[in-house]
Design a protein that fits this description.
Elements lengths: L5 E6 L2 H12 L9 E4 L5 E6 L7 H9 L7 E5 L6 E6 L2 E4 L4 H7 L17 E8 L3 H12 L7 E6 L2 E6 L7 H8 L5 E7 L5 E7 L2 E8 L19 H8 L30
Antiparallel strand pairs: 1-3, 1-4, 2-3, 4-5, 5-6, 7-9, 7-10, 8-9, 10-11, 11-12
Helix pairs in contact: 4-5
């Protein structure tokens, strides 16, 4: 498992903490791509962020979880060269002079060790379209939302349909939801594609809320209604063309040691995207 860019360490009964974290993230779509929950060996449990684009959200989550907690809730930014540890006690913020790994180990929730270099990029990739958006406004809006510059490899491309947002890592974190809140009159499409087993999902987001989704193959989603097409299209190729999203952004892979994706021209397994 890779080292997370941000972590929240929260005390309490496991089911209760997990339910509160889920409730916090339910307003985002797709919530399951934003964090992972890791039960600890003692009183504390860990919530890991999945992408550097979400750095900053650990503070608001920790503050929320600290409301009725007698013990501190820790928010840890692991994305910078000098990781920071903040402690929230009943919404009151304090700075902890603790080494993050030592703190996590002492609480029974040690961080994963840095992984061995892998030769293959994650199979799932996410790209977003802010319909009618302006690339020159989208980047500063997202940086303002997160309170810091975006990580290297985060891209905003102006197209006739709006702004296409994508990352070299294949994961754009909270970007689609955050931009839909920053530009409340825009419709944002978040496209999640997996080469294996060939799943393809389009989330439709307005004002920070999921208002619809389209899936190949079809699936149930309790948080938004299913739609029967995207722009009149029902195939992967047709939907990407209708949204003006280059297919290559959902096909990129990289080799070990490469910082940027190497775009392939061959169709992926299961009929492509």
């Amino acid at each position: 498992m890779k080292r997370p860019p941000w972590v929240v360490l929260a005390p309490g009964e496991r089911d209760s903490v997990e339910a509160r974290v889920r409730a916090y993230f339910d307003r985002f779509t797709p919530a399951e791509t934003m964090y992972s929950f890791h039960p600890g060996r003692g009183q504390y449990h860990a919530i890991y962020g999945v992408d550097e684009a979400g750095v900053g959200s650990e503070n608001s989550l920790a503050e929320e979880l600290s409301v009725d907690s007698r013990e501190p809730v820790y928010a840890i930014d692991l994305s910078s060269e000098e990781p920071s540890v903040l402690a929230f006690r009943q919404r009151r913020l304090g700075v902890e002079d603790r080494e993050p790994d030592e703190l996590a180990r002492s609480l029974g929730v040690p961080f994963p060790e840095p992984p061995q270099t892998s030769g293959q990029f994650p199979a799932t990739r996410t790209v977003a379209l802010v319909e009618g958006g302006d690339a020159e406004k989208a980047r500063p809006a997202l940086e303002q939302e997160h309170g810091r510059p975006l990580p290297a490899g985060f891209h905003f491309e102006q197209t006739p349909r709006g702004v296409v947002v994508w990352s070299d890592t294949g994961d754009i974190g909270f970007a689609a939801t955050s931009l839909s809140e920053r530009f409340p009159h825009a419709t944002v499409y978040s496209i999640v594609a997996s080469e294996d087993p060939g799943e393809f999902t389009v989330f439709i987001i307005r004002r920070g809320k999921g208002v619809g989704h389209y899936d190949i193959p079809p699936r149930d989603d309790p948080f938004s209604p299913a739609v029967d097409n995207i722009g009149g299209e029902t195939s992967r190729e047709g939907i990407l063309a209708a949204l003006g999203i280059p297919r290559k952004l959902l096909e990129a892979t990289r080799t070990a040691g490469s910082d940027r994706p190497a775009v392939t021209n061959q169709a992926p397994p299961n009929g492509g995207l």
